Amino acid sequence: MGLVVGLEEKLPSGFLLTTVEKLAGYMRKNSLWTATFGLACCAIEMMAAGAGRYDLARFGMEVFRASPRQADLMIVAGRVSNKMAPVVRQIYDQMAAPKWTIAMGACASSGGMFNNYAIVQGVDHIIPVDIYLPGCPPRPEMLMDAILKLHEQIGNEKLGPNREKIIREVEAAALAAKPTHQLKGLLT
Ligand code: SF4
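A: This is the predicted complex of the input protein with iron/sulfur cluster.
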């Protein structure tokens, strides 16, 4: 993988890079390891997903890593308190890049029912999130569905100049978007 990551800097866009992208995406999506931690009730469902009945092992993901340095997937399972936020951020910072995040459940995605001073109103205030999984709690099948969707996303990720182009486009779209204070109602 280190070879592929080094190569992407040197390759021009075109046929060869497309092939390398596909190869890197295939390897990355099939070698995800999750950082071990759970924050609240959603973590029980996450543990169930790793146990025999649901069997995350079929994706080679049953080993939750005890060290963030050996993990590239963070599943934020449960509400994030303000006190815990710097710890979550530190774990994320220590994880190996490239890395991905699933916000599991209503609390991790948005604060859920805990609209109060103690709870971060969505973990995307402190780390980037790739997949938001609704539910309170989401069932293990839903977590597995989120993981499969993440696999798809990782498999199609661009590298090098192609990735820079997409980042520029996304930034331009974000800058051109209507500010939230100008939005009215839920459907505008
Ligand atoms: S979404 Fe529901 S189950 Fe998950 S942490 Fe929040 S309250 Fe608990």
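The mean pLDDT is 88. Residues 38 and 44 are 8 Å apart (CA to CA).
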